[in-house]
Amino acid sequence: MTGVKYELADIVKRFGKQLMAEKNLSPEQTKVLFNIVSCRTPVLGWNQQECNICGKVHYNYNSCGDRHCPKCQITKQAVWVDKLINATLPVKHYHIIFTVPHVLNDICLWNDRLYYDIMFSAVRRTLHSFGYTHFGAETGAVAILHSWGQNLSLHPHIHCLVPAVGFDLQGKWKHIGKYKNYLYPVHQLSDTFSGKFIDSIKRKLKKLGMPNAFAKQIEKAQDKKWVVYSEASMAGAEHVMHYLGQYTHRVAISNQRIINISDTHVTFIAKDYRDKVQKKPVTLNGVEFLKRFCMHIMPSRFVRIRRFGIYNHTVQRNQNLQFFTGAHQRAQKIEEKIETPKERIVRLIGYDPYECPFCNKGIMITIKKVPRIRSPAGELPVILWSALD
What we know:
This protein is α+β, with helices and mostly antiparallel strands. Helix content is about 40%, strand content about 20%. It folds into two domains: about 10-70 and about 355-385, no CATH class; about 90-250 and about 295-320. It is built from 13 helices and 14 strands. The strands form four sheets. It has a five-stranded antiparallel β-sheet with strand order 9-3-6-5-13, sandwiched between helices. The longest helix is centred in the first third of the chain and has 24 residues, at about 110-135.
């Protein structure tokens, strides 16, 4: 990767065995770490390509495609944003961030899937209720979960892009949002969100036969001031979705942020929000770095990008919502038919990945494919161990 001296894979290779000796990794964590160290190496298979003009041969190693891998997200992000732009209302949007106090992190570490599902539910129900109480309309949002802070600490929060429009009880579109800097009063949002979240946690624990579990943490959370942050509205769907694209396929740490790896420690760049968002180096013990990274590996098949309200496909179908005119939809379908997948990738990432890197004129043609070697899932910890330094 151009301009990158160190990679996350280097950290996993150097400190992975120490991590496995100190921590019992879950199957998901084992799989992710294996994918990261194997990405773009012969382990995952490779393609032999030949230029149709100069005849040069190039070997292209396969990517792992893991959503936690910092090398596999750029193209996915570009394609996702492009699709979302075509399905977004051409109105201004508000960026709202819902955060849960750190005192409840113990519950997240105990059962992250339950915790994140309750977060999404509380956010959805909060926005839904505010849409009707403030504007008498069904609103919507695109919501994205992040679990990390800049120093890789556990900091669960959900980014929401909310359109300044809704669908009222009479079945008509209605513009909402009286203020430029916020859609709803943030203090009211905070109180409602905290109430719904705490109530859901208590109900779930009671249903699981654990009514008194985490009682101290919940009591402390009820006494704390919850934070919901709202940014100024943004005009134009394309601008909004490119802005959102900064958050969609982001992983806990990118390779560009890693500045040094020693025999014992890792140093990376982090923004200090308490000091005017200054970028500062942070140094962690190598094993501690990987332990923190593993906290942000999502549960298997967990969906961390969700659509609510009028942006939800089921709501759109049930209410027969028409975002665009028939002419606009026909033009969009024609445009989609004309542009090939290859042309779309070139347009989105700014270069042709199929162009010959030697003569810059020909096209690389795949002449041989070598697939990855499939191993039994139960043997993955052993395979990961053997792949580490």
